[in-house]
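Issue 218. Parser rejects a valid record. Input:
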Amino acid sequence: MSPSISWSPESGRRLTSVLLVLLVQFLAVGPGAPDADAAAGPGASAVATPDRARYDVSLRSDADGGHWTGRQRVSFRNASRQPLHEVYLRLWGNGEDQCGTPGSPPPVTVSNVGGGAPDRLTVGCTALRIALPEPMGHGERTTVAFDVSLTVPDRNARFGREGAHRFLGNAIPVLAVHDAQGWHLDPYVALGESFHALTSDFRVRLDHPSALKVPATGRTRALPDGRGRTVTLSVAHRVRDFAWAAGPFRTATQTTPGGVRVKSYWASDTPAAGVRLNRTDAVAAVDRFSEEFGRYPYGEIDLVMTPGFGGGMEYPGLVLVGTTEEGGAVVHEVAHQWWYGIVGNDEYTSPWLDESFAQYANARFYGWETRDCWSDVHWPSDGAALTNSMAYWSGHRNEYHLVYTAGPCALADLERTLGADTMARFLERYARDHWYGISTTAAFKKAAQAVTDEDLGPFWETHRIR
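Output the parser choked on:
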């Protein structure tokens, strides 16, 4: 996600001004990639459960794409050695409205649950416990299914609307993660992200009026039914979430030299110059990051651009980008396809592992000089640390920019400490070792220390990487 704030000297000043404006408006299989269980390493997705989930979703929209109803089926495996007695669904779309008000239900509702017994919604109506009919042993699979109703909130947000355009980010209920720390049932935060998910397969059928264009996660095809409606089918493998948008978008498609299809969707009042710049930068960024971090595995990425969306937001194969005449934060959001999407992390516990890494990639893409970037960074207290969780940042909202400023500065300093070539090899290897897995701060520090004879302890302390 980009709120969006950036740091840069003269070479990046033009884009920085754009990102600062967006910040105000706001107050994202490589060759030889290992299997996910092996990639995550001990203590990560090798013991996280439920895993290898398959989502089959069929939804039908109303006339303007603001309301969707249908059925969702989730099949999953128990990867843990311990019996699994329950699962949790995260209804992240309820995050801001929580349980709604009398006469106004929450935006996401689940009913007619099969395959288990649902409990009451908890954690601000973002968590639904489903007790399984019998304990699942290690390696066993089961399925739960339920009706789902999605009502797009009346706000310009990742799950919201802008004019005639609807954004359905974090709308579909997804499985929570259980690992050595227990169930991850963190609260929703609007400032950043709370999301934590294992990679899964999605097959989604979206039935909508033909007048609506529907960009979505995965490889899509649109099948008109001849009666004024179209079914958009999307298939996505090894992704952490599924998002889509709906509206009277203008569209264009390009294929990068590396073979990735970049599909652009924009509202008619989006500045044309910004659309062109975002499209150009996105095409270049997909191939650039494929070279640096490992080949982009999904074949397609959709850019959704509007003039009023605050900053940007990343989803697998789809990014939402607020766009001015000078473009937007599209490169940062594309970088999130690797840092959060492919190399996953617990975004509530360790937001720096995706936001700082995406912004570091953004800085490298634009060639910003980073030696003086600390001139704009101020640590407000001893308690402020780059590796703080969203629990801290939510209580210190005016400090959250440090994830976007101090974070890439610290990674740029690590590059100078290790050497540019070593840093490049290290990040490529680190991405490969955690491909479709979960990154942690401890794993990153250990891997960095392994590529140098210099004791990095003082470096971590100085840069508040704890």
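Fixed in the parser; the record now loads. Residues 50-245 form a domain with the Immunoglobulin-like fold (CATH 2.60.40.1730).
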